[in-house]
Amino acid sequence: xxxxxxxxxxxxxxxxxxxxxxxxxxxxxxxxxxxxxxxxxxxxxxxxxxxxxxxxxxxxxxxxxxxxxxxxxxxxxxxxxxxxxxxxxxxxxxxxxxxxxxxxxxxxxxxxxxxxxxxxxxxxxxxxxxxxxxxxxxxxxxxxxxxxxxxxxxxxxxxxxxxxxxxxxxxxxxxxxxxxxxxxxxxxxxxxxxxxxxxxxxxxxxx
Length: 207
Hints:
By secondary structure, the protein is mainly α. The chain has a domain at 63-204: Orthogonal Bundle (Tetracycline Repressor, domain 2). Helices cover 74% and strands 0% of the residues. It is built from ten helices and no strands. The relative contact order is 0.11.
């Protein structure tokens, strides 16, 4: 989705925004169930309980829906990172994310782990998707660095920029790996996971 498209979204009526969100939620469900290529506009229309013609009023094609889904997932990922930064114990916050990722619901306001894998695979085939994901990664990395560099008295960690650059990358790798593990092994022993995360996360928080 282009920046202009996003600006246009702010001019939509509450009803239109609700319809658009309904389409994106249905598309997300279909993309997880069938994959980007196998999911059709007819599948999305059926899942949204609306006509394909109505969907085309909001999105000209499936590609535009895919890009909007990536942007939607990016916004959720930023919310997850902010929740991690606001938590008194980052390990608790990561465990909460894992539990949510391993039990996905259509209405969940959190990054979908299976969709993360689907978009990552699609990025190797579609340049627009790759660019959208790259932009989302830049936003996530910036969010991590802002938290790590913020003074401790303001709720941050107080790291120097040089160290935060490395640690933000490590945290992104950790979170993405956790999402992959949630999709591949949702019944993972949570106590074992908590112990493993505790060994790593607190070291990443050190100067």
